[in-house]
Write a structure and sequence with these properties.
Blueprint (H helix, E strand, L loop, with lengths): L10 H9 L5 H4 L13 H5 L14 H16 L4 H15 L27 H5 L1 H9 L10 H4 L8 H9 L5 H5 L1 H11 L9
Helix pairs in contact: 4-5, 4-7, 5-9, 5-11
């Protein structure tokens, strides 16, 4: 992973490193203290992240921040845990919770590997984390592709993996269900102390 710019070493980053570090989610459980309100900067929303790999028990700072941001957006839309699990499982499968640049598959990019050529927005928009989440949910005005709430408005009645596949139309639909336990672990670990994000 490339070194973070000096401007990224904020008090929030130091808190993440100190309170969470690279310790196992299982070990930490619900023991981490509540955090101060997080500020999601434009640099955070658009920075390049290119290292592959995802391990739920060995997530680094950027993966943790991305998971927390997805949860913040879900809560900002007043959606529930099921929507959060579907969204997190999808991002784990598609990007290992990394905001990919450059594209790793044709013109795919970002947390959800959305393709501008398939109507998900511009190359910049699919890598803008808030716009990417909104598009996945079907709440992004910039996106022409149908999202979760378009395709599965009754998503609470769907198996999470099936709901993710309805949006992503993957050649490997079984992969989403396989990451549901990891997604639930992330929701359980972080949802209680992440404030809704609505900007």
């Amino acid at each position: 992973m490339p070194a973070s710019p000096a401007s990224a070493l904020s008090r929030r980053h130091l808190l993440l490193a100190g309170a969470v570090g690279l310790t196992s989610l299982t070990t930490l459980g619900a023991l981490a203290p509540a955090r101060a309100e997080e500020v999601w900067s434009e640099e955070f929303l658009t920075r390049p992240e290119t290292r592959e790999g995802f391990l739920v028990d060995d997530m680094d700072e950027w993966q943790i921040e991305n998971a927390r941001f997805l949860i913040a957006v879900i809560k900002g839309h007043e959606l529930d845990e099921q929507a959060g699990v579907i969204t997190l499982a999808t991002a784990i499968v598609e990007s290992w919770l990394r905001n990919y640049e450059p594209a790793v598959d044709l013109d795919s990019g970002g947390l959800f590997q959305q393709r501008p050529s398939m109507g998900w927005g511009t190359a910049g928009e699919v890598r803008h984390k808030k716009r990417a989440v909104d598009a996945f949910l079907g709440l992004g005005a910039h996106s022409e592709a149908p999202g979760l709430l378009d395709l599965a408005p009754d998503y609470r009645e769907w198996a999470p993996g099936r709901a993710a596949q309805a949006v992503q139309i993957s050649a490997h639909p079984e992969r989403y269900a396989a990451q549901v336990p990891a997604a639930r672990a992330l929701w359980d670990r972080h949802a209680g102390d992440v404030a809704p994000y609505t900007d």
